[in-house]
Amino acid sequence: MTEKTSPALPDVAEIRRRLGPLPSAAEVEGLQESVRLLGLVLREIPESPAGDLDPGHIFPVDTGRAS
Amino acid sequence: MSSEAWALTLAAASQQIAAKTLSPVELVQSCLERIARVDGNLHATAHIDAEGALHAAKAAEADMATGRPRGPLHGIPIAFKDLIDAKGLVTTGNSHVTAREPATEDAFAVAQLRDAGAIILGKLNTDEFALGAANGDQPLPPVRNPWHPDHGPGGSSTGSAAAVGARLCPAALGTDTGGSIRRPAAWCGVVGFKPSYGRVSRHGALPLAPSYDHIGTFSRATEDAAILLGAMAGHDRRDPTTSTRAVPDYHAALGRGIKGLKIGYARHYEDDGGPADPAVADGMVEAVRVLRDLGATVSEIRLPTPQAARACFSPMMLAEVYALHAERLRTRWQDYGRNTRLRFAVGAFVTGADYVRAAQGRAVIARAVNTALQQHDLLLTVTAPTTAMRYNSATPDDLLKGAGLTSVFNVSGHPAISVPAGFTPAGLPFGLQLAARMFDEATLFAAAHAYEQATQWAERRPPL
Prior knowledge:
The complex is a heterodimer. By secondary structure, chain A is mainly alpha-helical. Chain A has helices spanning 12-19, 25-42, 55-58. Chain B is of the alpha/beta class.
């Protein structure tokens, strides 16, 4: 079972490391808020009792076989 | 010459072309005149290929004259969200970062329509790469809603929804990753359809998040969507997610009606995504009455909440889009629109564990939808609990704050359609959403068509 955590809020250095120097200071601040919101969203992921990692179950791909 | 051929649905125009009471040239000219008259304020189009469309229309007319009709799409002008390749036309994605080279081949869906006799009218406006809500810093101006210029059309297939709503063309293609066809269709008073994942190839369309991306249709009638899917569906080796299942005759299924069908109604979506506009909630009560009068059994059910669907959808979608744009975001940050770059950049902070956990949750949701569809033939929800947002009002964080009622069927992959279900006192349209079992688009179309025939919402024209 994976731990149900929110992503750690990135600091300015971490945002610059991933995105480079071009985002403005205001944009970096906005991104921190967006990542915080993402953390709240992730809390709503439904539990998977089986912890199923079979990609055939995860992605809705049907190549013609009977379902 | 001026005619009101632009006001015809695809099927009605097709019947007139087959009867030789309307020529493809007259139809294309009528649409071009309508675009010239209306689109200056609407901004639904990206690039209209008037010369190419008229050339193709003349060829279609010649084929008709020599007894070589190609079927219901013969001579029908169709336009495409500017994420979808059409040979000879530039695909911009409404972004400054894309190359301005004409496509060397058609997207699979475009090629299928062209082979079936359709005429390529041109490209339509879109949110940048289907995610960056327009705010004036993208190449094309934001699209206005054909029903009220103070409102937007809904995204991301902004131009496709507005163009069909404004009667600039009888039908258009769009893409739907989390609701980008169905939501703007509801807000522009037209039919928006997303097929089963794997029913229509995405080859030749700019990807947003490949595990969620679908190509689908905008039209003024469900019958038109059935005609279009019949031409577009099928296996394509260049999109390995496409199914080899046989393509049924969707048009023939339209007359089946819905008598005896079981419909599970997730009324809680109006509260989960809300609060719902009172006129929209009243409209759903009336829609349920109509469906029951047509012979369906409608019972309330609970589906996975929109919040749960968003929780699986958002991290996966953001990670997939970031993977596609990471390098360009580092080097060409300012060339993306502000909403686009700030939305895409969030994907840099989705961890591998987040992605896997969201994917596991996705399987849980898909199973829950499948279970509901073992007990019911169709599922019913409101498409969106409110009407169109104010013009040019989107912010980067809207994506994470809103609870889209449509993404559940992108998460699960099931086919879904939004059909017009009413208007608010302010004159803004809204829609209802139906979903069906995987690859059972025939039942979906039969039900939507029956509802449409029993109501007149789709026949209203915007005041343009």
